[in-house]
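hey m, so remember when u said the tokens were messed up on ur end? i reran from scratch. heres the input so u can diff it against urs
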Amino acid sequence: MSTVDEDSKPLNNSAKLARRVCDAGLLLDYALANGVDVDQQIIAAIRDIQLWLDGVMDETVPRIESKAESLQRLLIRFDEAYCELSLKMKTVSADTLRATNPANGRPFISFGTGLLRSEAEIWSFKMWMFTGFALIVIAVTEFLQEMTTRWYPLDPGFEKDWVYQMHLYQVGLDILLPFIYGLMGACLYLLPKCHVFVSSRTFNPLRIAEYKSRMLLGFASGGIVMFFVHEIAVGEGDEIVQLSAPVLAIIAGYNTDFIFQAIERMVAAILPKVGVASAMKAAPAAATVRAVSIEGLTDRLLSADNEEDRSAIRSLLEAARKRL
């Protein structure tokens, strides 16, 4: 049964404690087998809880004292020891040890032999399959392109025979090819890291979803990058290098941040930089003499009945003429 299946089962408190003791013992055995300097108090605390748990499970094993106070002290010592051991081992944990141990694996393409493979080996094999699939698609596309260009060009006078179908396949593969290059770039990035995780016993099954997202982003970036990038500046930025579409797609798949940086640079160059001050609605300008119609003032002057109104309108007209 796989580690994932075991972790998905609900556990009661006793089962959780037994699982934690088993994890601590597994991690301690690995540390001692690899020459890690572990404090004697950590070893004693973990071994004591193992002896107590063995006594609970098996009546033939001598029990240690199990009074409430003694048991509480035993559990506290174990928790402290397990915490210190986990900090010392850093990226290696009981989960990573199980994920890289074939004995805790499951059958995968064993062809009826019952051979077990660890979760790390299964994921590594899947990435090899994706890489092989990408290489096959690229090879088939290049082969069809050579065939349709040199040996079997499309003739409008021919009927829709197998040559016509071959050209249709070529068109579809040409559209898909940049995405396949991006997928291959993502696999080229993940494969060496996966092998390092397996050899160092640090492969964490919880990060499998992250690896899948990385492959999906690489697949998408390979097809999208050509719409944003046509050339790359190298060195100090003085030299511009033109890159082919496959190279750009592989780079985008290998480094998924490449496409996001290209999009951010384009957004910064095209869209205006709007700040808080400029985004605030501007206050309406105060009315000035320029906003007053001279023709309107002239009409009012002619229609005024008393001298006081005429004097005020003449003053406004004089001020308006000075500002023109």
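this time it looks ok to me. Residues 3-90 form one domain. if urs says something different then somethings off w ur setup not the seq
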